[in-house]
Amino acid sequence: MRAGAIVAGGRSTRFGDSDKAVADLAGTPMIRRVADRLGQVVDELVVNCREDQVEAISAALSDHTLDPRFALDEDPDQGPMAGIATGLGAVESEYAAVVACDMPFVDPTFVGYLFERAESHEAAVPRPDEWFQTTQAVYHADAMRDACRRALERGEHKIVEPLFDLDYVVVEREEILEHTTPATFENLNTREEFEAAVERL
Description:
This protein is of the alpha/beta class. Helices cover 33% and strands 20% of the residues. The strands form two sheets. It has a seven-stranded mixed β-sheet with strand order 5-4-1-6-8-7-9, sandwiched between helices. A two-stranded antiparallel sheet has the order 2-3. Helix 3 (80-89) packs antiparallel against helix 5 (141-153). The radius of gyration is 15 Å and the shape is globular.
């Protein structure tokens, strides 16, 4: 069993007034594009978000074959680490792929590869440049959830902090490019990035 956890609880402040998770991207809500791609390589799907997002996201994901479940932020605005912890706390599988809701070009084949790389470890995290891609990575769900909670208790908010508590594998740029293209990590934060993505689709 493999799980997918989509993190959607951010406030999309750079996106204007609307919630980018459900923004229409070439005729399909962005989160639906992520769910459809992730759904090709996982057996269950969990969406982490705020309570005020549930109705719109439910509509965007209606009739999805995996019937996504919601993991709601008890204390919104704690940042992506808290969202990851909440999402992973709701999965039933041992391993879960965590993907941000604003990565509509996520490559399911690459996510499948990350599951393979994570086997017998607690995480497989891509590093296409100097930064870790923690919101397109595969984690041992319990281990990462607990590591996130410990980091939050210590007052840490950097999303890489929990990794240092884990036995993690780094998937470096060369290895990434053997399996996918950098587009898999592209995230849409602004209206301009969104419009450019619409043209590509």
